[in-house]
Amino acid sequence: KSFSPALEAISFLSLNNCLICIDDLERRGDRLEVKDILGLLSLLKEQRKCKIVLLLNDGEEGLEDYDKYREKVIDIELKFAPSALECAEIAFSNQTPKYSKLRELTASLEIRNIRVLKKIERLIKLSEPLTKNFEKELEDSVMHSLVLFTWSHFSSMSNEDIPTLDFISEKGYMHLRSDEGEISEKNKKWQTTLSAYGHVMADELDLVLVDAVKTGYFNEARFYEIAKLKNQEIIASKSEESFSKAWRLYHDSFLDNADEVIKSLYESFKENCKFITPINLDGTVSLLRELGEEEKA
């Protein structure tokens, strides 16, 4: 709402003994000089007995005049630089799903922007009811990817050291090369960041999560469709490991443990039969027969 110059003048004259907070000085208008702002602050402080708090982002461009005149105007300077873990403790509540694990993930990427952390928290909360009936490994994978994708989507535009979401979600990002056919230095740095975080390659479920980050909501039908397939892969992998562990009782021991081997193989097969390959089935049947367990074979 616009006021007449007279009213604006009266309003300014009424400023006395006030606490004034000025945020984001670096976003001032093009025609507004920093030295003029500092002059006004000095007037308010000296003549109107006001207390001024000036908030600045360290390292921003266009603040040369501030550096030049700060000694004459600023009484106390404090640097607020919490660690990534401290920022996570500020942003996340104890009710946030998997609070401790989420803090570890965001801290590993050195995420300090509270707004970005809150966006991550929101998506994690939205994903929780979608993953609760799947294997724990799938739930962990979704959280792992959402942290990375959200950080990239909202931070890469302002920081070229952060890999872009297009780069991350490209299935074969290793092939993103310069015109000369070599991997660019920037892409090498991005790949190092992703490798350190434990992200190797985007899969079909990751692409669904990328869409959720971009749109702000989950396509639940698509999520369940892909998540069920991913969940079956996880179960199959765990079953294969369980069955292999039973076989190691036979291969890795010189003990007279035939009864233990038979029981372990037989019980593991019954539990994991949907995911055991024909070759492993044939080997199991043959061993049971060799050990005189025709009925089990």
Concise account of the structure shown:
With 297 residues, the protein is mainly alpha-helical. The protein has helices at residues 5-13, 34-47, 64-73, 84-91, 99-108, 114-131, 136-155, 165-169, 185-197, 204-215, 220-251, 258-272, 278-290, and strands spanning 19-22, 51-54. Helices cover 60% and strands 3% of the residues.
Written overview of the protein:
The chain has 297 residues and is mainly alpha-helical. 60% of the residues lie in helices and 3% in strands. The model is unreliable at 171-176 (pLDDT under 50).
Poorly predicted tracts of residues: 171-176
What's the count of strands?
A: 2
The total of helices stands at: 13
Distance, first to last CA: 87 Å
Q: Which sheet architecture does the biggest sheet show?
A: 2 strands, parallel
Order of helices and strands: HEHEHHHHHHHHHHH
Q: Which labels suit this protein?
A:
two-stranded parallel sheet, mainly alpha, about 300 residues, elongated
Secondary structure topology:
Layout: H1 5-13, E1 19-22, H2 34-47, E2 51-54, H3 64-73, H4 84-91, H5 99-108, H6 114-131, H7 136-155, H8 165-169, H9 185-197, H10 204-215, H11 220-251, H12 258-272, H13 278-290
Parallel strand pairs: 1-2
Helix pairs in contact: 2-3, 4-5, 4-6, 6-7, 7-10, 10-11, 11-12
